[in-house]
Specification:
Length: about 270
């Protein structure tokens, strides 16, 4: 698959300087986030179907997401083209399955994520947990390869410095080094962007006022850490809370929404 070992326990466990093999870093640590998102993408489709809002306007956040995601598509496609053109044949460099299937798997995943940017905007989905977790896993699991690439590049520079100056040919290792860090930078930017919720939808089922509960517009990260509640907690710490300090009830939890559902099941059981 890679032209090298997939797993070597002497490099990972039985050593004072543990590290993964390059093959493991370029396959398992990249494909696991892709598999995770493909497995749970059904939740993103559910969010679209269940959303009661519509038409989030284009803004700096979703435009930046689209551009960075497009950049990931371009760099991944370029990886595939370079592998097909510069490796194999008369180049003298062996072309492995990873050189072809690695970019294809990443490109397909990024394309799926790219499609959700306008869909989320159209159907008023301000944040999704699946996409945040994908970018989080992709970025965190790429950190070991950062260490490996920096070490390999330092070793290459030492060899080049000690060698006689000559005309340099194309170096696949140098291209991989540059390509990976562009990929890692874009992935990190996408992770940061997904820490924030998108703008307010223009069309909503419920009237949204100035005193609405912040949870409605909170990002996935804010919801799982309850960061949206910090302002209320801080206000209550400084002064006793009064009724005017409280946020409006979520429309979904109001009597006008809950009571018909309760009455339907109550009457059904009474009958």
């Amino acid at each position: 698959l890679c032209g090298s070992q997939f797993w070597n326990s002497t490099e990972t466990w039985y050593t004072n300087d543990p590290d993964f093999t390059p093959c493991f870093e370029q396959t398992a640590l990249v494909w696991m986030p892709c598999a995770f998102y493909r497995l749970f993408v059904i939740f993103d489709f559910y969010y679209l179907k269940a959303s009661l809002d519509r038409n989030i306007p284009w803004n700096k956040l979703n435009v930046t997401k689209a551009l960075v995601n497009l950049g990931l598509l371009v760099i991944t496609a370029l990886d595939l083209v370079m592998a097909l053109v510069k490796k194999g044949g008369d180049s003298g460099l062996p072309r492995y399955d990873l050189d072809v299937w690695g970019p294809i798997i990443k490109f397909a995943t990024f394309l799926l994520l790219f499609m959700f940017i306008p869909l989320n905007r159209k159907y008023g989905v301000q944040t999704t947990g699946c996409q945040f977790l994908f970018w989080f896993l992709l970025t965190v699991l790429a950190i070991p390869r950062c260490r490996t690439e920096v070490r390999l590049n330092a070793d290459r520079q030492k060899i080049l410095d000690s060698a006689q100056p000559s005309e340099q040919d194309f170096s696949w290792e140098e291209y991989q080094f540059v390509s990976f860090f562009i990929f890692f930078t874009f992935s990190s930017i996408m992770l940061i962007l997904n820490c924030f919720a998108d703008g307010m939808p223009r069309q909503t089922k419920y009237q949204r006022g100035e005193n609405e509960i912040p949870e409605l517009s909170a990002s996935f990260l804010s919801r799982i850490t309850y960061q949206w509640f910090d302002s209320m907690a801080l206000k209550g710490y400084r002064n006793p809370l009064e009724e005017k300090d409280l946020w409006d009830l979520r429309p979904q939890d109001s009597c006008s929404e809950v009571m018909p559902i309760f009455a339907h099941h109550w009457n059904q059981n009474v009958r």
